[in-house]
Amino acid sequence: MSTAVKSIFGAYADRMQLMIDRSLDQFAQPWYTRYFGFAPPQMGLTYTSAIGRSRIEAAASVISTDAAAPLRSRPALEKYSGEVAKISEKVKMSESDYRDFLTLQSLTGVDDATKQRQLLDFMFGDIKRVGDSVDSRVDMMCLQAVSTGKVKVDATTNPDGLVYDDIDLLMPAGNKVNASVTWATAASAKPLSEDIPAIVQAASTRGITFEKMLMDVSLWWKFIQIAEVKSLVSNAMGTKQAGNVLISLEAVNSLLAANGWPVIELVNRKIGVEKDGAITTVNPFDTSVVSFVPAGQLGEIKNAVSIERISPIPQVVYANYNRALISKWKQNEPFGEYTKAELIAFPAFTTIDSVYLLKAIL
Length: 362
Description:
Blueprint: E1 4-5, H1 11-14, H2 16-22, E2 36-38, H3 47-51, H4 53-57, H5 74-78, E3 86-93, H6 95-105, H7 112-148, E4 150-153, E5 165-168, E6 176-178, H8 191-204, E7 212-216, H9 217-223, H10 227-236, H11 249-258, E8 263-267, E9 271-275, E10 278-282, E11 289-293, E12 299-304, H12 307-310, E13 317-321, E14 324-331, E15 336-348, E16 356-359
Parallel strand pairs: 2-12, 6-16, 7-8
Antiparallel strand pairs: 1-14, 3-15, 4-5, 7-11, 9-10, 11-16, 12-15, 13-14, 14-15
């Protein structure tokens, strides 16, 4: 029977919170913090409370006065009734890893300050890894939400965990628009003369003003190859050789801003997903879509209190990284030193009614 005992790092583990607080700049900087802040923590968290009960209840069909109400199937609605699952990762320092660590610490000719630095680096490496991992999962959910109006928790994005498939955040159908001509057709696509102004005008009639257009870097490269873009941007730059001009983001945004349109912000976030020890890269932002977003925050990260905050396990050392709970302990059988991060969270996309998605690659 395994038992949790005090971390092998002893008194240094007891100072884990101080270590994290002093090293926040060493954690990877997530994308979601630009547009989503954390909501106050709550005791429980369901998909209904994160997405909003009124939005889910408002999703019924519009029917004529003498028609029968459509019968809803349960599976789709059940996605909104369950508790939000934990986001968690745990790493292990094995017995052989520990022996290697002890060897480093016992080397002669190495001063105590160097040994202490080695110890702290060894310890912080695992803390950073698990802390970054929960941020990456929140990034994945937010990037999916902003570019598709949905969050995917499927076998591709979550191979070793629960599978929910799509969790629809209920973006209005009218907010999803197809390009007049696919942007993959560089000779005839009309992003500047038709696609962008059409969406800006449609939103304007609803009192919506956009600040930015978010697009993946791969879509940007297609955009700047479009003949219309080359021609209009080169004219704005005072260059008539549209075929030879180098289209820069600054030049495009200058033209967009001059027309009172939202400027482009590039998204280049790839996230590693591990399955059976192998890591593959996924792109959570839809590479075929331009997301038109208003100014300011797009939503907030709803989060719940981890049970171990309420009822700590004896001998386990705890610390906070943002809203994630970091824990550290040693196990006797099989031997191992464990570091874990846990976060119960889900994005509330509160501005979803004011966000438009342009399907640029058809």
